[in-house]
Amino acid sequence: MNTTNNKRLLSLDILRGITVAGMILVNNGYGPSFEMLGHSKWNGMTPCDLVFPFFLFIMGVSLYFSLVKTQFRPSAPVLLKIGRRTLLLFAIGLAIHWVDYAIEGDWLCFGHLRVWGVLQRIALSYGIVALFVLFIDHRWVVPTIVVLLVGYAAILLLGNGYAADATNILARVDLQLFGQDHLYHKSPVDPEGLVGTISSVAHVLIGFYVGKTIRETKGLADKVNRIFVVGALLVIGGYLLSYGLPLNKRIWSPSYVLVTCGLASLLLALLMYYIDLRSCRRWYGFFHVFGVNPLFLYVTSELLAIILGHLGVSQIVFDAIHGVISHPQTASLCYALYFVGLNFLLGYLLYRRKIFIKL
């Protein structure tokens, strides 16, 4: 076997780190933010809308590299690990919502605790794809992606899926199954709801296919070229599809899946070229810290934001920044950068001690 196939891709860690740092940045602006650092209101896409799909894509790539070590044999230890990780991620997602209520004194908030969230979407997508690739022949990966996206497109078109109100089938299913008290309250459509998991599973499968392509292609230069071609085809296909099915993060539309996976592939190919092929590695240290403890740092950032907000520290820091920088959007960005820096310091302590926490 070609030795380059067994060499760890540092570029994947860096892409993961860029993504996690980006997730923390866009989630923690204080006060009014620049439009590019906010999610699109409905149809369309901002840079902020790239970070979560990039993470799901990377998870798919990493899943291939992880399970190939087991030769994709569904042994009891492997299945136990997948089940435990799926349940742990889902439970942590629920716990973050609980802490948000509990810190305000509502300890018994279970009657109105939100069911869905970022970690819950990650958990379900991970668990479903991991089981699929263990039990189903991998030549069915691409056909399954097509079936999932076509089927989801049909659900959206037949179920008023582009309506930004309670008539949307995604909202109706969540409301029927879980009740209003357990759903996202900032919009009628829960952006991490149950039905949207269909397209996020396809999203992770695309990442898995890219991981498979990287592994099976000999030579780093050929790997870069193939991933670049895959990314370009996905972006072009996604934008063409968007004329009938607009880009929409809130419903995780099929065009959104293709475009964001394509952009993630292109960025991965670029990083592979400069980091793994050309060995241009002087600049990546900051992102490597986030890339080796990604989920742990994301979870701690969510909890830290809740705690600092409750204690009033966030307001004090923002007011101090705003006192120096009068422009509110710039002050908000500076606060977000400060918050990323806090999480970097935590990650750096772990990094220096070679502590890698797997969730």
How would you portray this structure in words?
- The protein has helices at 3-6, 10-27, 51-67, 76-102, 118-135, 141-158, 169-178, 197-216, 220-241, 254-277, 285-292, 294-311, 313-324, 328-352.
- The chain is mainly α.
The biggest beta sheet, please? none
Poorly predicted spans? 1-6
Supply the helix-strand structural class. mainly alpha
Radius of gyration: 20 Å
Helicity level: 55-70%
Bulk shape: globular
Average residue pLDDT: 92
Strand content: under 5%
Q: How many DSSP H or I helices? A: 14
Write the layout of secondary structure elements.
Blueprint: H1 3-6, H2 10-27, H3 51-67, H4 76-102, H5 118-135, H6 141-158, H7 169-178, H8 197-216, H9 220-241, H10 254-277, H11 285-292, H12 294-311, H13 313-324, H14 328-352
Brief synopsis:
This protein is an all-alpha fold and 359 residues long. The chain has helices at residues 3-6, 10-27, 51-67, 76-102, 118-135, 141-158, 169-178, 197-216, 220-241, 254-277, 285-292, 294-311, 313-324, 328-352.
